[in-house]
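ok, trying the design again with the full structure, not the truncated one.
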């Protein structure tokens, strides 16, 4: 059975292939810079969809000899590239719009442009909603980036649709490049937000405050079975979440009892925090008062 994330990425590729063809053909036929701009935007979306497809396939690979912690950050790299592509598309749209303002040119057969923009907004609304549902269910930053990318296209297509309608009723053709520039402004904003969200985890930022609070609450559920814990650290890698901390065990516990306690804590965290990998460094409580260091060896163990 095809993996859910890969299936969603393929749907995005197929829909964008159809839309980029339709927009560019209609845009050049009627001479509308805003429709052509939307075609460029969709071509950008198509490239981004291919990147997302590659990312979700690659990020799903298990850890190997060269990538001991897996391939999760490929999704963050994908999202960062998508954000940069969106920004480039916005610059191209602004360039085309300015040339249209300077040199003029009246779009013809507006009905075709209005039709393809309305269809584009509807298709991207459906596909982006589907991608976002899968992204949330599978914790995929690459699919979430693609969904945000397409949702931006919904707004811009709707804006061009409205602009062409106004041209049809008012005859003011200058609305066409103006609509294109407004489209570009929305795209630049989306590019900034997407790049920021995708790039930050590449420098090993911690999980959200809510997730860290949830982890602490889970650990404290077992407080009767250990002395204390410290040095809790978290980081995100794509959809993967890495968690480690030190646990001070009671001196009278056996290795097996400490092992079972860690298993219970790890299993609980992984149930509540999907795609998490937990590393616990166990330490015995010092039983000889005044000693600078405990003589017992530490037990370090991991479970993912």
């Amino acid at each position: 059975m095809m993996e859910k994330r890969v299936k969603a990425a393929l749907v995005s590729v197929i829909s964008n292939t159809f839309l980029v063809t339709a927009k560019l053909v209609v845009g050049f036929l009627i001479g509308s810079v805003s429709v052509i701009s939307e075609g460029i935007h969709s071509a950008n979306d198509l490239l981004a969809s291919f990147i997302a497809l590659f990312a979700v396939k690659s990020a799903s690979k298990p850890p190997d000899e060269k990538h001991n912690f897996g391939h999760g950050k490929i999704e963050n790299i994908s999202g960062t590239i998508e954000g940069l592509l969106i920004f480039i598309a916005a610059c191209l749209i602004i360039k085309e719009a300015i040339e249209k303002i300077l040199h003029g040119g009246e779009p013809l057969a507006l009905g075709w442009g209005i039709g393809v923009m309305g269809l584009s907004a509807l298709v991207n609304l459906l596909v982006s909603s589907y991608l976002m549902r899968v992204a949330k269910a599978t914790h995929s930053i690459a699919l979430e980036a693609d969904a945000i990318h397409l949702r931006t296209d919904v707004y811009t297509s709707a804006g061009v649709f409205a602009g062409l309608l106004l041209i049809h009723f008012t005859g003011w053709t200058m609305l066409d490049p103006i609509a294109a520039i407004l489209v570009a402004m929305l795209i630049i904003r989306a590019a900034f937000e997407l790049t920021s969200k995708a790039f930050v985890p590449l420098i090993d930022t911690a999980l959200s405050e809510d997730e860290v609070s949830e982890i602490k609450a889970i650990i404290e559920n077992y407080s009767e079975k250990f002395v204390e814990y410290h040095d809790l650290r978290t980081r995100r890698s794509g959809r993967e979440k890495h968690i480690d901390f030190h646990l001070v065990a009671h001196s009278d516990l056996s290795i097996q009892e400490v092992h079972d306690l860690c298993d219970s804590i790890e299993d609980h965290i992984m149930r509540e925090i999907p795609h998490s990998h937990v590393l616990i460094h166990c330490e015995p409580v010092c039983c000889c008062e005044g000693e600078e260091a405990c003589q017992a060896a530490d037990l370090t163990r991991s479970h993912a």
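Keeping the full-length input from now on. Residues 222 and 297 are 23 Å apart (CA to CA).
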